[in-house]
Amino acid sequence: MSAGPYAARLAKVRKAADDAGLDALLLSVGADLPWLTGYKAMPLERLTMLVVPADASFQPALVVPELEAPRVVPVPEVFSVRAWGETEDPIEIVASLVRLAAGASPALAIDDKTWAVFLLALQDELPGARWSRSSALTGPLRAVKDAVELEALSRAAASADKVAAALLAGEVPLVGRAEREVAAEIGRRLLEEGHDQVGFAIVASGPNAASPHHEASSRVIERGEPVVCDFGGWLDGYCSDMTRTVFTGTPPAEFSHVYGVVAEAQAAGVEAAQVGRPCSEVDRAARSVIEDAGYGAYFVHRTGHGIGLEVHESPYMVAGNDEPVQAGHVFSVEPGIYLPGRWGVRTEDIVAATADGPVALNQASHALSALG
User: Fold this and answer.
1) What is the C-alpha separation between 28 and 48, in angstroms, rounded?
2) Which of 107, 130, 156, 317 has the fewest CB atoms within 10 Å, measured from its CB?
3) Does the structure show a pLDDT above 80 at 368?
4) Residues contacting 234, CB < 8 A, separation 6+
């Protein structure tokens, strides 16, 4: 990627930091680091940290282990690289950069994902500093995707759609196979369709479908039961995440009814995702459909979560979140009904909010597929 998107993001971060009275941000293994530099740090006992002074006269510096430095794609217009050797103290290096740019008593925001051992060491090295979470500043900024990010998320969704289409068409055998076998095939298909990495593949059959985050097991899928398939990963650094529920055989009337309720709720949630409305209204719109059908007690999670460099990030479509939907927000809409000990249904698409209305990035069919 050119320096342009990174430079624009950095300018927004610095302005927000200055407005918040912060002197610097310290970003480690979380998603803020690749968002600003393109470099994703490995979670190692060796410290990686981007020091971002609010004062634009100081260039951000990426403090990185020397053995990891070859993985950094330099963007010299945006940040410098300070590689540290095995006998150097990276905590002292970071502290020195902070003192140089912000003095002895700085107001600092540190990445939420920073290991506690590094934070504690930095607190010892910078005893006059005041600390806060960087996500309070970067979260709302990262939630509004730029054109580059929207394109990447669209590619990831299109790739996942191809896997979903194969599932719905019966091209992924289900009956007689263990859930984990099907999960492995879904993962392979994601890679074949262009994903760089598989993040997860939930395959929940029969009574396991009543567990929203079921881990694919050795249970063999039988004929005459639902199978919830929720899967995603990373393509060019950005995430996919979608869910489709299929039925192995002819679905009974009760299941078809519940499936229809979930489909209606999902459509209502998407339609409610209008710019300017509170995120909570997206949840309310989907939840109301399920409550009106008498299944409110069986919808046990929020309606959606933001997505980008991370599978779950701001904004969250949940009661109590009155943050307004903004153009550039990208999030899941995934209502479900889960009947304990029996089965469950969930449908999920990734949706982008635009000035012209919500746009579903996933296009795989929502019709109930009765397979075999």
Assistant:
1) 6
2) 130
3) yes
4) 156, 195, 196, 197, 199, 240
Q: Tokens representing 253?
A: 């009337």
pTM above 0.85, yes or no: yes
Q: How confident is the model at residue 4 (pLDDT cuts 50, 70, 90)?
A: confident
Q: Which domains are present in the chain?
A: 3-141 (3.40.350.10), 144-370 (3.90.230.10)
Query: How does the average pLDDT of the chain come out, rounded?
Result: 97
Q: Tell me, what's the pLDDT at 3?
A: 79
Taking each helix axis as running N to C, give the angle between helix 279-292 and helix 253-272, from 0 to 180 degrees, rounded to the nearest 10.
Answer: 160
Closest to 166 measured CA to CA, from 367, 372, 364: 364
Task: Decide: 270 and 358 in contact? Cβ < 8 Å.
Answer: yes
Backbone angles phi, psi at 198, to 5 degrees: -90, 130
pLDDT of residue 76: 94
**Which DSSP category does 295 fall into?**
-
User: Does pLDDT of 1 surpass 90?
Assistant: no
Contact 24, 51 (CB under 8 A): yes
User: In sequence order, what are the beta bridge partners of 228?
Assistant: 204, 245
pLDDT in tens, 57-107: 999 999 999 999 999 999 999 999 999 999 999 999 999 999 999 999 999
pLDDT in tens, 304-329: 999 999 999 999 999 999 999 999 99
> Which pLDDT value is given to residue 145?
98
Strands, E, within the chain: which ranges? Answer: 24-27, 49-53, 61-65, 80-84, 107-110, 130-133, 197-205, 226-235, 238-239, 242-247, 304-306, 313-317, 330-333, 336-339, 343-346, 349-354, 357-360, 369-370
Residue given tokens 């609010």 in the structure block: 54
Q: Which residues, including other chains, have CB under 8 Å from residue 353's CB and lie 6 or more apart?
A: 273, 274, 275, 325, 326, 327, 328, 329, 330, 331, 359
Q: Which residue has the tokens 């046990």?
A: 300
Q: CA–CA separation, 33 vs 142, rounded Å?
A: 11
